[in-house]
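Data availability (excerpt). All sequences and predicted token strings are deposited with the supplementary files. A representative entry, Ribosome-binding ATPase YchF, is shown inline so that the format can be inspected without opening the archive.
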Amino acid sequence: ALTAGIVGLPNVGKSTLFNAITQAGAESANYPFCTIDPNVGIVEVPDERLNKLTELVNPKKTIPTAFEFTDIAGIVKGASKGEGLGNQFLSHIRQVDAICHVVRCFQDDNITHVSGTVDPISDIETINLELILADLETVTKRIQRVEKMARQKDKEAMIEFDILSKLKDGFEEEKPARSIEFTDDQMKYVKGLHLLTQKPILYVTNVGEDELLDAESNEHVQKVRDYAEQESAEVIVISAKVESEIAELEGEEKEMFLEELGIPESGLDQLIKATYNLLGLATYFTAGEQEVRAWTFRKGIKAPQAAGIIHTDFERGFIRAETVSYDDLVNAGSMGVAKERGQVRLEGKDYTVKDGDVIHFRFNV
Ligand code: GDP
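Structure token line:
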């Protein structure tokens, strides 16, 4: 399963946010494929469509889809020098598929800031620099391997050498790989290097609880937005403290509290949705009388692989995917009417599943 790692300097609110994640926690019985590890929190993906489908079908059970956040421990500063806990930090980042970078934007004189003052850009640069240095090492090693061949005019090696040199130059200017431009062909090679600064990233600004409604007037948030824009990265504003309070509530209580705060959606829910997108994930649904359920798939997969997410037998014996789009089904009001309207398609093994598809798989056992 894909996972997003939560990183940040000490005292920025990571643990507070991670605790909110585990509090809000999904019932792990529904998600046997998820990791059981104190550093992993399973979150359910909020999806209005699932509620609508439940109203429509009236099943015995409704199960949202879920994914994992990993709390990344270890020491940041000096990590690229490869010592102890720092090394651990880098190897944890290597294992995640996307990064949620938490930065402190709240003022609180009682809580020490590791570098003395609240300065989110300097915080971001501190972590990014360690990652860039680790990538620089990766790339330098590679260069040593291809350099000689490139000098002997080996075509492959020359292409590699060019790309690696461009990366190296960028890293030396302290640019992350994700903001260095490459052609599509070059990008295929770059992806194969599994660089830390190539991983998709979003920034989470942790603001004071009284700033939540007017976060845009927080100058730190503005600075993070400007920084993120250079990398085309998204910024999510939260108050970790408020999130830990919201996480204790459910259903109506939660809605009432959000209303009191004057926000339509909790920061955590926004973060979950944004991270889901960042990971390149999308949702299809199954809707039967027993159970209405959301399933996560990686964008771009074909119908048999999508079936395999439910059960390997579904993939092995795949015949057809009876598919209707969520919008068509809701407009029709029932599966019967959607069928009459010819909106339920019989898709074969080459069909690329789309976000919002409601699917009934037919398969041989
Ligand atoms: P971590 O080291 O990044 O995991 O940070 P923690 O989550 O442990 O938070 C460090 C301290 O900052 C704790 O005492 C938290 O209660 C406090 N803290 C976290 N978020 C906020 C916030 O939004 N406002 C204020 N005032 N304090 C916060």
